[in-house]
Design goal:
By secondary structure, the chain is of the alpha+beta class. Helices cover about 20% and strands about 35% of the residues. The protein has helices at about 10-40, 65-70, 155; strands at about 40-45, 60-65, 75-80, 85-95, 100-105, 110, 115, 130-135, 140-145, 160, 165-175, 180. Strands 1, 2, 3, 4, 9, 10, 11 and 12 form an 8-stranded antiparallel beta sheet that branches.
């Protein structure tokens, strides 16, 4: 008994199908690379500097396109390169933009003389420092963690260049029972 031998037509169809699958896989890899490079990035919170808004080990989606279309806004939670070591990235909140006056009185932060929202920060996370006023230079931002008494931020390492702000934190997707979309202060 002889085994089945595929015809040339069948072999040609198999070859065409393999080429089509290969093209699809290459296209998917290119699209995925473009999305991760220029569009969105998955990030993980390390530490408590953004508590209570973000907790250690939270998983985030960072929109890297957001600041190609417009500048970071006060209240945005952003992923940024650490100015003292750009190989590290941090997650912080923008509290002042270029040209703003920023100061703190007994731990309450004022931007251009107006108290920033801080009612979402529990008392045990607040600090009582007084500093400033300082004027944010052009193309720079002032960022802070929400856990004000346990955050390395612009109070210790100064301004963040706009080019170091990688993207806007849009979504916490893990843990699932705490998933939420971020827009503004809360």
């Amino acid at each position: 008994m002889r085994g089945w031998v595929p015809s040339r037509h069948t072999l040609a169809r198999i070859g065409e199908e393999l080429v089509a699958w290969f093209k699809t896989l290459v296209s998917a890899a290119v699209y995925a690379t473009l999305i991760v490079t220029f569009g969105f990035q998955v990030a993980r919170v390390e530490g408590q500097s953004m508590a209570p808004t973000l907790e250690n080990e939270d998983r985030l989606i960072v929109n890297k396109l957001a600041y190609r279309l417009h500048d970071p806004q006060v209240g945005d939670i952003v992923m940024l390169l650490y100015p003292e070591n750009p190989d590290q990235s941090f997650v912080k909140r923008v509290v002042a933009e270029p040209g703003d006056s920023i100061r703190s009185t007994d731990g309450h932060v004022y931007r251009n003389g107006v108290l920033l929202p801080d009612d979402f920060i529990p008392k045990q996370y607040q600090d009582h420092d007084t500093w400033g006023p300082e004027i944010v230079p052009p193309a720079m931002y002032f960022v802070m963690g929400d856990h004000r008494n346990n955050s390395s931020d612009s109070r210790s390492w100064s301004w963040v260049p706009k080019k170091y702000i990688l993207g806007k934190v849009q979504l916490r997707w893990w843990p699932l029972d705490h998933a939420r979309i971020f827009d503004g202060w809360h």
